[in-house]
TrEMBL record:
This is IclR family transcriptional regulator. SUPFAM superfamilies: GAF domain-like, Winged helix' DNA-binding domain. The keyword Transcription regulation applies. The lineage of its organism: Bacteria, Bacillati, Actinomycetota, Actinomycetes, Pseudonocardiales. Pfam families: HTH_IclR (PF09339), IclR_C (PF01614). It comes from the Bacteria. InterPro entries: GAF-like_dom_sf, HTH_MetabolicPath_Reg, Tscrpt_reg_IclR_C, Tscrpt_reg_IclR_N, WH-like_DNA-bd_sf, WH_DNA-bd_sf. PROSITE patterns: HTH_ICLR, ICLR_ED. Residues 2-61 form the HTH iclR-type domain. It comes from Amycolatopsis silviterrae. Residues 62-245 form the IclR-ED domain. Gene3D superfamilies: 3.30.450.40, Winged helix-like DNA-binding domain superfamily/Winged helix DNA-binding domain.
Amino acid sequence: MSQSLDRALTLLGGLARGGKTLDELAEEIGVHKTTVLRLLRTLESHHFVRREGTRHYRLGSALFDLANQALEDRDVRRSSHEALAALNLRTGHTVHLASYEDGEVVYIDKFEGHHAVRMYSRVGKRAPLHCTAVGKVLVAAMPRAKREGIAHAITYVVLTANTITTPEQYLAELDQVAERGYAVDNAEHEDFIHCIAAPVRGAGGEVLAAASMSVPKVLLDYDGLLALAPELLAAAEEASVHSGWTGNGKGQ
């Protein structure tokens, strides 16, 4: 990668965490302010960066346009949208669609819950595999050798008292997910939220993504969460049908 491109991408990554001054950006990438200013002017001319006043810079509209175009290009997002929007409308709970990318979960769609409690998640945000229901669904669908490789490569960051902490625990959990057809995050990622997830399949029966429903514990206990499984599974199946799945591994 060229040095200028690397620096420009580093600048964008820094601005993704909030607006910054020229001095702050120069310190962050370790170069002189004139170099940073030159990069910022180029990025600004293409609307990847916008200037606020004379000192602060923020991400510009072009970056968001590119992100939306990239997300719209994911066929599973388009094909699942109607079924997941209807699930959100029926239940009032937050619904996500997530895919696997480079050892992490990536949220590719979100339908916000109708209650006051909000989740940290947003479209494009990444999350761990070991403590999210969507992560468990995505890994459980992989061939056993790959599943085991991922399980032993994970850094088991403990986020709550319920977070899985070893490869052995994780693999046992994945076996259960594969057997019952859905996964549960029992307040493993955020201690006030629990979640249930199911696979969205493609024409050949492959798992394209995972759909989930997340509920604050103050609104619904664990048994109440599990009672939502048939509702989620039906929506995931509908999304799968729209993605080409017929239930027998053959496309429409």
